[in-house]
C-alpha cells in the first residue's frame, strides 16, 4: 500500500479496542476525562494507527510492559467469523467495515490467527463467484441480487465493476480490431 492510498488511510482509521497496561497521566481525554489519567486495565477504542503506535511503546523504565495491548476489532471478532463460516454470502460486510478485507489484511499483520485468515480467504472466494454471477446477470442488480450488492465492501465493489465492464471492453476491442483490418 502506498502512503497516499486513500483506502489504506481509511482502513487505518478503523477503531480497534486497546487495553492499557499502565496508568498513563494526561491521556484521559481519550476516555472523555480531559486532563485525567487512563488507568491500567481500561479498554478504549482507538483508531488503528494510534493503537499500533501505542502498542509498540513501553513505559519509561527498563523491562516495563508495553503501553497497550490490541484486541480484534468488532468486524473480526468470533461472532462475525462464525457467521462467515456458516454462510459468507449473507453477511453484510459493508456494514461491518467499508474496507473489510483491507482491515482483515492489516489485522493479520498484527495477529497470527490462521483460523481467521482461512475464513477471510474462503469468504472472498465464495463471494467472488457470486459477484461474478451478479455482474454478468443484467437483472441481478435489480432483483434478488440488490441486497447482496448493497452489502459489498469496497474491494468487492471494484471486483463487481471490473467483472461487469470487462466483457463490454473486450467486445469494443474486438470490434475495433475488425474495423482496422
Automatic annotation (TrEMBL):
<feature type="domain" description="DNA replication complex GINS protein PSF3 N-terminal">
    <location>
        <begin position="4"/>
        <end position="56"/>
    </location>
</feature>
<protein>
    <recommendedName>
        <fullName>DNA replication complex GINS protein PSF3</fullName>
    </recommendedName>
</protein>
<dbReference type="Pfam" id="PF22466">
    <property type="entry name" value="PSF3_N"/>
</dbReference>
<keyword id="KW-0235">DNA replication</keyword>
<comment type="similarity">
    <text>Belongs to the GINS3/PSF3 family.</text>
</comment>
<dbReference type="InterPro" id="IPR036224">
    <property type="entry name" value="GINS_bundle-like_dom_sf"/>
</dbReference>
<dbReference type="InterPro" id="IPR021151">
    <property type="entry name" value="GINS_A"/>
</dbReference>
<dbReference type="InterPro" id="IPR055221">
    <property type="entry name" value="PSF3_N"/>
</dbReference>
<comment type="function">
    <text>The GINS complex plays an essential role in the initiation of DNA replication.</text>
</comment>
<dbReference type="InterPro" id="IPR010492">
    <property type="entry name" value="GINS_Psf3"/>
</dbReference>
<dbReference type="InterPro" id="IPR038437">
    <property type="entry name" value="GINS_Psf3_sf"/>
</dbReference>
<dbReference type="GO" id="GO:0000811">
    <property type="term" value="C:GINS complex"/>
</dbReference>
<comment type="subunit">
    <text>Component of the GINS complex.</text>
</comment>
<feature type="domain" description="GINS subunit">
    <location>
        <begin position="76"/>
        <end position="173"/>
    </location>
</feature>
<keyword id="KW-0539">Nucleus</keyword>
<dbReference type="Pfam" id="PF05916">
    <property type="entry name" value="Sld5"/>
</dbReference>
<dbReference type="GO" id="GO:1902975">
    <property type="term" value="P:mitotic DNA replication initiation"/>
</dbReference>
Amino acid at each position: 500500500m502506498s502512503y497516499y492510498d486513500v483506502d489504506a488511510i481509511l482502513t487505518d482509521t478503523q477503531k480497534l479496542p486497546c487495553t492499557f497496561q499502565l496508568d498513563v497521566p494526561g491521556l484521559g481525554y481519550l476516555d472523555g476525562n480531559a486532563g485525567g489519567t487512563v488507568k491500567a486495565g481500561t479498554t478504549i477504542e482507538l483508531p488503528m494507527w494510534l493503537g499500533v503506535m501505542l502498542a509498540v511503546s513501553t513505559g519509561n523504565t527498563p523491562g516495563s510492559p508495553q503501553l497497550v495491548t490490541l484486541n480484534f476489532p468488532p468486524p473480526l471478532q468470533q461472532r462475525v467469523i462464525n457467521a462467515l463460516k456458516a454462510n459468507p454470502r449473507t453477511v453484510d460486510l459493508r456494514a461491518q467495515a467499508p474496507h473489510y478485507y483491507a482491515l482483515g489484511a492489516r489485522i493479520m499483520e498484527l495477529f497470527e490467527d490462521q483460523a481467521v485468515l482461512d475464513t477471510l480467504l474462503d469468504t472472498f472466494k465464495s463471494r467472488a463467484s457470486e459477484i461474478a454471477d451478479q455482474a454478468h446477470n443484467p437483472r441481478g442488480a435489480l432483483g434478488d441480487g440488490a441486497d447482496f450488492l448493497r452489502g459489498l465492501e469496497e474491494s468487492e465493489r471494484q471486483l463487481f465493476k471490473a467483472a461487469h465492464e470487462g466483457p463490454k471492453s473486450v467486445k469494443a476491442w474486438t470490434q475495433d480490431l475488425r474495423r482496422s483490418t
